[in-house]
């Protein structure tokens, strides 16, 4: 139970589990951009709130989307 005044944050839930998405697709670039920082880095699991299974799939999907130029490697 979080204490009052200590900034207790609620644990985020995996949006892929909530939406019942079994496999993350690299072609959904709009969904994948939510898991990138403004500089183009992949957000870690503790910040994005993904479960371990979906975080691994997101990482692979982002790397594949970058390979076929759907997402940039870096943002300026």
From TrEMBL:
InterPro entries in UniProt: Ribosomal_bS18 (IPR001648), Ribosomal_bS18_CS (IPR018275), Ribosomal_bS18_sf (IPR036870)
Single GO BP term: translation
Iron as a keyword of this entry, yes or no, is no
User: By its UniProt entry, which PROSITE patterns does this protein fall under?
Assistant: RIBOSOMAL_S18
Keyword terms of this UniProt record: Ribonucleoprotein, Ribosomal protein, RNA-binding, rRNA-binding
RNA-binding among the record's keywords? yes
GO CC annotations?
Answer: cytosolic small ribosomal subunit
- Extract the GO molecular function terms from the UniProt entry: small ribosomal subunit rRNA binding; structural constituent of ribosome
The similarity annotation says:
Belongs to the bacterial ribosomal protein bS18 family.
* Subunit record text: Part of the 30S ribosomal subunit. Forms a tight heterodimer with protein bS6.
Entry function:
Binds as a heterodimer with protein bS6 to the central domain of the 16S rRNA, where it helps stabilize the platform of the 30S subunit.
What name does UniProt use for this protein?
Answer: Small ribosomal subunit protein bS18
